[in-house]
Amino acid sequence: MNRGNRILLSCVYWAFVLYVFVPLLLMILMGFKDSKFIGFPIRSWTLDWYTGVFDDAAVPSAFVYSVVIAVLATMISVFVGTWIAVLLEGRKFLGRTAMFGLTVLPALVPGIISAIAFRIYARWLGIEPGMGAIVWAHAVHNVPFVALVVMARLSTLPKSQIEAARDLGADPIIAFLRITLPYLVPAILGASIFCLLLSFDDFVRSFFLGGYEPTLPVLIFAKLRSGMSPEINAIATIALVLTAAIGIWAERFTRRMSKDT
Amino acid sequence: MSDDVAPRAGRGPDTADRKRLTFWGTLSSWTPYRLVVGLATASPRRQFLILAAFPLLWVLTQHLGPMLQMLRVSFTDAYPVAPGVEQHFTLDNYARFFGDYIFWQPFFRTLTFAGVFTFCTLILTYPVAYFLARHVSRKNQMLMLLLLLIPFWVGEIVRTYAIMILLGNTGAVNQLLKWLSLIDRPIPFMYTSFSMGVGIVYLTALYMLLPLYSALEKLPRSYNEAAADLGASAWTRFRRITLPLTLEGISSGCTLVFLISTGFYATPVLLGGPSTTVFAETIAGFFHVAGDEWPTGAAFATIMFVAAIFLTGAFQKLMNSLRKGDTN
């Protein structure tokens, strides 16, 4: 169509790719610097910061703590979010719009306000700051994402399949378990991975609802406040590689699954 | 009980090969299960109520509950309530905000910053979304979009730290400028509204890119081709066709990014300085000290939430009227 335009736009795209990747690549490089001082240029290289990560017991334990929280929160969000999606999708009832609005509310409340509201509510319910409170806040915050993803998938389910199952004698529960649920699996898996990453990466809710034990982002934040060091780069790089790897794998996996069904 | 499940009658021949019944067959012929299902699905109305009860209870107590509780606490004089102390209704927490201009500055700064950063994100990501949706083949679109998604799986804190390394006095940008002999002394990017902006745009770009991309992708290419055939220039085509028809994507992207930007706490703490204190830090301050400041924090959070919702609502109304004006 328009060659000049096209070339210009592709330059913009690749510049944007650089913009999103370069800061992370620089951060990774800095983790191999053989000096305590953060800054360029890097003259000599070392792996000591990485071996040091495992000597400091706080890092592996924060990592495990974050993973456990993410898994528990995701299980709750997936259960609740799927249920809400089944209620909302393809059904007309009084107050559906209000129900939808309330469902997506936690995703729209700005981070700090959501953290404050959860903190007050947890106090009111008598939940002590700590793992339970973080799991609960993450679970509530992630429900809208599950509901939206599952609703999108559910809207493409051919109605005739459910009708056929019902005609063959399946009650609504069996029809749901044998037709709807298997059809939703790719969406549920995709949403789970997204929730896991969201929860694992979350800072503000974990920070305000946490007890003495820090999650990984809270630990990195605390270390950053007391000064930059290549040790933080090593920790951050490990977290980065893991989250990106899980994300890429999930993307490929769910794409293949939704193609198959 | 089974009057509404008449089709079940067709299950008659099953008895002949009962041995080969599957798990599901066994389950559906198990009497307690059938009783429960029969009761639950006796009428469409009851079926719906059972389906709706749990989600309704959940959204009311878990989604709306925290917000309402925050609102209630914002009108009290003490929270958490110490034993033996009586809690009173008061408007003091709100009066404290409106009475002391020291709080106005971070408040308006937050809203202004969020607006400016949202606009920057829009300007930055629109060409990228446009390129992906209009100039790339279907197969490559997914790959190239995925490439942009990867950095966004990385957490808020890690990405903020990456920006700190990029912009520090001995950071990559300053070293590069020095190496090019453009500067002698490092430019102090860090702890300014600039570093904060770079960080926030970096964190929110994806939330703008995706709505824009899906809006642009839905736009039929034939519209532009028809306009080109009729002699419209590239700029006219963009202004009269592409832009008006993607206003919906722009509006949802901007709303999302604005709301997210107002809620950042860690990024302004790490990238900003004393001259860029945002309202999130003010609010957080009331929760770090003695408990009796919680109601003030709750009131401030409520004020900010109401302001953010009001502004995004007004913005969406404006976009809607723009959209209608263009189709008429």
Brief summary of the model shown:
Chain A has 261 residues and is mainly α.
Describe the structure.
- Chain A is mostly helical and 261 residues long.
- Chain A has helices spanning 3-30, 48-55, 58-88, 96-108, 111-125, 131-154, 159-167, 172-201, 204-209, 216-225, 230-260.
- Chain A has a single domain, classed as MetI-like fold (Orthogonal Bundle).
- Chain A is built from eleven helices and no strands.
- Chain A is globular and about 75 Å long.
- Chain A starts with a helix and ends with a helix.
- Chain B has 328 residues and is mainly α.
- Chain B has two domains: 1-42, no CATH class; 100-327, MetI-like (MetI-like fold, Orthogonal Bundle).
- Chain B contains 15 helices and no strands.
- In chain B, helix 5 runs antiparallel to helix 12 and helix 12 (247-262) runs antiparallel to helix 15 (294-327).
- The longest helix of chain B is centred in the last third of the chain and has 34 residues, at 294-327.
- The relative contact order of chain B is 0.11.
- The chains are: A mainly alpha (261), B mainly alpha (328).
- Chain A: This is Inner membrane ABC transporter permease protein YdcV.
- Chain A: It is found in: Cell membrane.
Number of helical regions of chain B: 15
Distance between the termini of chain B: 56 Å
Pairing-aware structural class of the strands and helices of chain B? mainly alpha
Percent of residues of chain A in beta strands?
under 5%
Coarse structural class of chain A: mainly alpha
Radius of gyration of chain B: 28 Å
Order of helices and strands of chain A: HHHHHHHHHHH
- CATH class type of chain A: Mainly Alpha
Count up the domains of chain B.
2
Largest sheet of chain A: none
Tally of separate domains of chain A: 1
Distance between the termini of chain A: 37 Å
CATH architecture of chain A: Orthogonal Bundle
Query: For this structure, what is the CATH homologous superfamily of the largest domain in chain B?
Result: MetI-like
Write down the CATH topology of the largest domain in chain B.
Answer: MetI-like fold
Let me know the average pLDDT of chain B: 85
